[in-house]
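Reopening: C-alpha cells for the adenosine-5'-triphosphate complex, inputs below.
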Amino acid sequence: MRFLKKGDDKKPKSESGSETKGHPDLKVISGSQISGRQPQQQAPPQQQQQPQNITLPNIKYKIAVASGKGGVGKSTVATNLAISLANAGGAVGLMDADAYGPSIPTMMGIQEQPKVSPERKLVPLVRHNIKLMSIGFMVPEEQAMIWRGPMLHSSIRQLLSDVEWGELDYLIIDLPPGTGDVALSLTQAIPLTGALIVTTPQDVALADVRRGVAMFERLGVPILGIIENMSYFLCPHCNEKTEIFRKDGGRNMSERFGVEFLGQIPLDAEVCTAGDIGVPIVAGHPESPQSEAFGTVAQELETVLEETGDEDELTIL
Ligand SMILES: Nc1ncnc2c1ncn2[C@@H]1O[C@H](COP(=O)(O)OP(=O)(O)OP(=O)(O)O)[C@@H](O)[C@H]1O
Ligand SMILES: [Mg+2]
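Re-run output (same inputs, fresh job):
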C-alpha cells in the first residue's frame, strides 16, 4: 500500500450560503426553511460557473460510487468496499454525497455532530476504521432536505475542502441515484480518479448503466469498473447459488462498454440487516462469503488503480 507524502494542505475559504441549519460550518437548506420564499441572495451566476478546483493533494484516489438508478446498492457497496480497502491496509475516507437521502450514518452506525478543529475544519467521525463525513451528521434524520442548486454545490465543496480528511489512500464518495446535480458539482470541485458504477443484473437496471456511463463520459471522468450487486442468492443452508435476476447482466454490459468488471455481490438478507444495524457485513462478519465478495471487488479495484497508475494516466472512455 503506497501512501502519499504530506503536501500543502491549503485551507479553502468556506463558500457562503444564505442560511445555516444544523452544523454552523455547513450551510444546508432544509424543507422547513424553503417553505417561506427565500430572498434572492444566491451567489451570482458568474461565481457558480467558475468553480475552483479543490485538489486534495493528500488523498491519492478519489472514487465516486454511482448508478443510473436508485436502490441498486450504492451505499451498501460504498460502505463495504471502504471497509474492505481498510482491511487490506488502506487509509480510507467515506464521504456521503447523497444530499437528499444520506444513508451512511445509519449504515455505519454513527450519528453525531462532527467537531470543529482549531483550523475551523470539520473533523471526520471514525467508525469501523473509516473516516466519515455526511450531511446526515449535520441535519436531524427525519428532516427533509430541499436544495437550491448553488447551495447544493457549495455544500458538496464544503464536504471536500472544509473537512480535515488528512492523508488517505482512498476517498470513497457515495452519490445519490441518477445522473444529476451532485455528480456535476463533484466533478467541478475535484479531479476524480474515477467512478464505479453499481448495477443489478436485470435489463431494466442495465439501461441505467448506459446513462451513468454516458454521464461520466460527458464529465470527463474515467469509469474504473462495474460492480454487479444482488447477482445471486446464496442459500445459507447449502451454499447453492440461485440467479434470481438475469445472469451476468453486469459482466455483459462491462464487455459491451469495454469497462472492467469488478465482481458480483450476492443478494443476501444479512447484507441488508448489517446495513440496518450499522455494522456492515465486512465489519461484522469479515470471514463470510458475502464479505469475500466485497474483498474481491476491492482487490480488483486496487489492481485497476495500480495498472493505470497515477490518476492523470487513466484513460477517459
Ligand atoms: N447485496 C444485497 N443483499 C441484500 N440486500 C441488499 C444488498 N445490497 C443492498 N441491499 C439492500 O437494498 C436496499 C438499498 O440499498 P442501498 O441503500 O445500498 O442502495 P442505494 O443504491 O444506495 O440506494 P439510493 O439510490 O436510495 O441511494 C437497502 O435496504 C440495502 O440493505
Ligand atoms: Mg444510497
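Residues 64-309 form a domain with the Rossmann fold fold (CATH 3.40.50.300). The chain has one domain: 64-309. Marking as resolved unless the reporter disagrees.
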